[in-house]
Known about the structure:
Radius of gyration: 20 Å
Mean pLDDT: 78
Number of strands: 0
CATH superfamily of the largest domain: RNA polymerase sigma factor, region 2, helix turn helix motif
CATH topology of the largest domain: Rna Polymerase Sigma Factor, Chain: A
CATH class of the largest domain: Mainly Alpha
Largest sheet: none
CATH architecture of the largest domain: Orthogonal Bundle
Number of helices: 8
Structural class: mainly alpha
Helix content: 55-70%
Amino acid sequence: MEQERLREEEDIYSxxxxxxxxxREAFMTVTRLYQRKVFLLAYSFFQNKEDALDIVxxxxxxxxxxxxxxxxxKNFQSWLLQIAKNLxxxxxxxxxxxxxxxxxxxxxxxxxxxxxxxxxxxxSSDLKEIFSSCLNKLAERQRMIFVMKHYNQHKYxxxxxxxNISLGTVKSLHFKAVHNLRGLMNPYFGREG
Length: 193
């Protein structure tokens, strides 16, 4: 297992060296190997396919531009995902943080609660937007882990691998995310935090 991991690292170092020399095929290989992980990270941030795809494209463009900054001996996946995380934060600040409809607390009596239509299905309500607003107020890593766990159905071990953090850290951040989310949601349901 350890030998396989070391061989994969050597392969990626070799590919990055080729990319530094302008090898387009090596760049396409790295893109194929890592685009899913970058997409999952970005999707966990935005819960929106189009935004996530924009981040994937921008991440690999940045990688191509900055490949010469990558140093052998560093973890390539962590380095690449750090580029993606930074882009997510910048993109979020630019496109999302100013359009938040529910920055103020709205009492539940004033919300559009779901109603059943003639087919027995619920109509859309403000609850989903309020939940999204509360989710967006979580710390970055808490939000990412919560979304990866509950929206993307990742196991704790998969999240730890994707984010390159320990399993214990993932579990701790998930616990804090759930706790903080409850606290943020309580005022909307007439309960104290």
